[in-house]
Amino acid sequence: MTVSLFDSMTPLLASAIGAAIPLLLAALGELIAERAGVLNLGLEGMMLMGALISFMTVTQGGPLWLAVVLGMAAGTLCALLFGVVTLSFMANQVTTGLSMTILGAGMSAVLGKGYSGIAAADSFNPMPIPLLCDLPILGPSLFSLNFLGYLSIALLIGVSWFLNQSNAGLSLKAVGESPVVAHSLGLHVTRIRYLAVLFGGCMSGLAGSYYSVAQFKMWQDNLTSGNGWIALALVVFATWRPSRAALGALLFGGVSALGLYFQAIDVHVSTFALASLPYIATVLVLVVLSSNQENIKRHAPAWLGKTYYDES
Amino acid sequence: MKFSKFKTVMLGVAAAALLGQAAVAAEPIKAAFVYFGTPGDGGWTFAHDLGVKQVKKELGASVQTTIVEDVPESADAERVIRDLAAKGNQYIFTTSFGYMEQTLKVAKTFPKVEFYHNTGFKSAANVHTYNSRMYEPAYLAGIIAGKMTKSNTLGYVASFPIPEVLRNINAYTMGARSVNPEVKTKVVWVSSWYDPAKERQAAETLIGQGADMLMQNTDSTATLQTAAEKGVYAFGWNSDMSAVAPKAHLASVTQVWGPYYVSTLKAAIDGKPFKDNVWGGLKEGMNGLVSLNNSLPASLKKDVEAKKAEIASGKFKVFSGPLKLQDGSLKLAAGQALTDKDIDSINFYVEGVEGQLPK
Q1: Which value, in Å, is the radius of gyration of the alpha carbons in chain A?
Q2: In 3-state terms, what secondary structure has residue B237?
Q3: For residues A14-26, average pLDDT
Q4: ipTM field
Q5: Where residue A9 falls among pLDDT bands split at 50, 70, 90?
Q6: What pairing do the DSSP bridges indicate for beta strands B323-324 and B278-280?
Q7: DSSP 8-state secondary structure symbol assigned to residue B317
Q8: Deepest of A62, A167, A168, A202, by most Cβ within 10 A of its Cβ?
Q9: Triad B193, B196, B199: Cα angle to 5°
Q10: When comparing pLDDT for A282 and B11, which is higher?
């Protein structure tokens, strides 16, 4: 029995979407933080902590909803630490973010010692939408997601609306463009930045939960394997716009699924090259994007990564 | 008063000396084991740990064992092995292929320590290798897969294209084709011994391409878990993995290190350290095919048992002719068999394996 190319596309698309969801979640969170002018490079660390805490929760017999809530809380807590250091103590955001990555990776490895290798006691399973799931190609991929998958689509719509339609979104963008002006308009710059950073951490934690209790259904050291960095690159790739982040996430998800897919349909490329495809794609995209400095400058929050000294 | 105090002290010293002597006489030998993962992997390291547990049970206080878990196959391994030797361990077992060079390097500076390296192909005066012919039970698993498959497509989640792995892929495919010549094996390489996340993606990819019998040459239970979720069948590898997914699990190809560890350390206690390179299989009981699924037809189980007996007795050799290469050309004519040296350096796919061999 042979599988036609058409049939074999469906699982490829399904795994591309599966890989795209956590990238999108983390990228949406980081996008909000960066729109407020805060660059948090600690995505990877926050995701790992979220993944571990969620996994621990289900292993200890906790329900799935609690696992997700605690995973988000873990990410938020990491972000709070980042916020205190960078927003209250005015430390450099880049170094603090890097430390957060190292801290999260190390701490999750130590705390997760006894949890690696065992299967998740409970996990999110696909919830096909009746009728729609019977559509060819899109049915089994887009309309058979698990709960977190649908949630990510809702969050994408929510974040887009927030940024483009709401007053609060306008305030957030004002803080990212010019905290001085925002302050003179009566906005609480530091408070808004805190909220944006905490939201970013919460979304990273959620992305981590997705890895440990929905996609891989297990814990291992460095479970997110660099995807935090890809999500970070996605924000630049998307030029700080949510819809483009979704597109980028799909593209990167597709590239990472493609490596194994090529092997299975017997396209001969070095397996090591295939395994590094997502990272090569990241570098390429960043190089291409930064060659157009105008485009980046036009869309990047003007105050991104800069410390703001609140004088009030 | 003074005198008696002196006497007490002297007695104390004498007693201590005596006790010390006694302690020397009963001093246990010191053996150390370097693990690639943790026993929690449920696979490779778990199997080694079972062996060490057997040592503790059978040799008790006469062996003092030290275990170091999660040692990367990098310069870190050399540091760990050197540290163990420096701490007075006389027998050091390094339980992963990637410790080969590090073990040899440390062995040079500790000529009085005996090193036992698992699955390597280089030895020295004080470095001895031990390995298991996993391709024998892999062939038996192939027979089951060949009989049970409905799509005639088998899937193999593979780690690195080295002879050890290639011969297992070949044996699995040959076993399947011995009962069902229509069978094809698809292989996906994950470039890692232990990466459950990647193993899961590879398994999903293979299932997406129509594979309904999965085998793996990686260390975790991820492939089996994925098979269970997607409603196809899979085998356990290295350890008995039946408990992970009782329905999807057809059988487990296991490593059995206990008897080797016990006999090696027993020889050491007797003062005649074991210095041979060992490559054992079904015959020596260094591996096995266990926990066959109850739903398998009785006649199939009987066939597998019969083949197992033939391999153990030496009547049947897995890599014997007629053996065709992937392109259909004849590698071995009927009546011929590969030598151990050939088997140890296999760098080809047999007929039925799909895809090009990664270089």
Answers
A1: 20
A2: strand
A3: 93
A4: 0.74
A5: confident
A6: unpaired
A7: -
A8: A202
A9: 75
A10: A282
